[in-house]
Specification:
- There is one protein chain.
- By secondary structure, the chain is α/β, with parallel strands linked by helices.
- The chain folds into two domains: 2-70, no CATH class; 75-259, Rossmann fold (3-Layer(aba) Sandwich), CATH 3.40.50.2020.
- It is 42% helix and 13% strand.
- The chain is built from nine helices and eight strands.
- β7, α9 (235-246) and β8 form a beta-alpha-beta unit.
- The longest helix has 27 residues, at 2-28.
- The radius of gyration is 22 Å and the shape is globular.
- The N and C termini lie far apart (68 Å).
């Protein structure tokens, strides 16, 4: 018994020393904002997010964002969150009226953060954006039978190590109580990065026929919510929707965390 008491006391002392050391290090090397790199001053404001994150992913978040960046994440006015999926719809559109929900503008802090997700491997930022998008969709009362992320090609996935659309779509599904179908859509060929193509027609041609539904899934008669990180011309989500309709989906809804549409051009779905 005496030995156990000594061992427990020793463990308690070592644990206390470790916690004190961590506290000292935090004072010397404080947490840095994942977006701008400034000192993060919002740790106490992440308590609720930490609880949600733990429920979704089974662990505490490792994300630190400063107050300035958090306050810059301003949701768009209600009527500016909705648009037609294609920024320049054509007369021969195979999915006329396909609607897109985007609650944040792709500018300022969001424009600065997205490359950090894609090329800086800031997965935690993608998950934060997914929680924000999921909460917005929940507030809007959007319903579907499943949530599907826009897939990367195998080569791009291996290069990046994760699919940012999938990291965003998963919290969207969980928050809204919907099944997450992460492997439903397949990218059938390598495409150029849409961000590197300026011409709208070339962007559409780049992703034309690039998706199909896995033969492991049956979407016949279902309403599917397709999710991507950013929508510019909407061509990628439009092609994903076409593949879902070809496979028998009765309705496809599109959502992206952010976009760069300046005006409302469609009624909400």
């Amino acid at each position: 018994m005496a030995t156990t008491a000594v061992n427990n006391t020793g463990y308690s002392i070592r644990s206390g020393i470790r916690e004190a050391f961590r506290g000292a290090v935090d004072l010397i090397l404080p947490y840095r904002c994942a977006i701008c790199g400034r000192v993060s001053d919002t740790e106490d404001r992440f308590a609720d997010y930490g609880s949600l994150y733990n429920e979704l992913f089974g662990k505490a978040p490792e994300l630190h964002v400063c107050g300035k960046c958090l306050s810059s994440l301003n949701i768009l006015e209600w009527d500016r969150r909705w648009s037609l999926c294609l920024s320049n719809p054509s007369g021969n559109d195979t999915c006329p009226g396909l609607a897109l929900y985007m609650p944040f503008a792709y500018r300022g802090i969001v424009e600065h953060a997205v490359p950090k997700i894609k090329f800086g491997k800031k997965i935690e930022l993608a998950r934060l954006f997914g929680c924000l998008l999921g909460s917005c969709l929940c507030y809007e009362g959007i319903s579907a039978d499943m949530v599907v992320p826009v897939p990367l090609s195998p080569g791009r996935l291996e290069e990046r190590g994760f699919n940012q659309a999938s990291e965003i779509a998963y919290p969207v599904a969980r928050i809204n109580g919907l099944p997450f179908a992460g492997d439903l859509l397949i990218r059938t060929r390598e495409t150029k990065r849409q961000s590197e193509i300026r011409d709208n027609n070339e962007r559409s041609a780049n992703v034309k026929g690039a998706f199909e539904v896995s033969d492991q899934w049956d979407v016949t008669g279902m309403t599917v919510l397709a999710v991507d990180d950013v929508a510019t011309t909407g061509a990628t989500l439009h092609e994903a929707a076409e593949a879902l309709y070809r496979a028998g989906a009765s309705k496809v809804l599109c959502a992206a965390f952010a976009g760069n549409r300046a005006v409302k051009n469609a009624e909400p779905f």
